[in-house]
Amino acid sequence: MDLNGSEQDPEMKAYSAVWVGREDNIKKSERMTAVVHDREVVIFYHKGEYHAMDIRCYHSGGPLHLGDIEDFDGRSCIVCPWHKYKITLATGEGLYQSINPKDPSAKPKWCSKGVMQRIHTVTVDNGNIYVTLSNDSFKCNSDFYATGNFKVIKSSS
Question: pTM of the entire structure?
Answer without folding.
Answer: 0.86
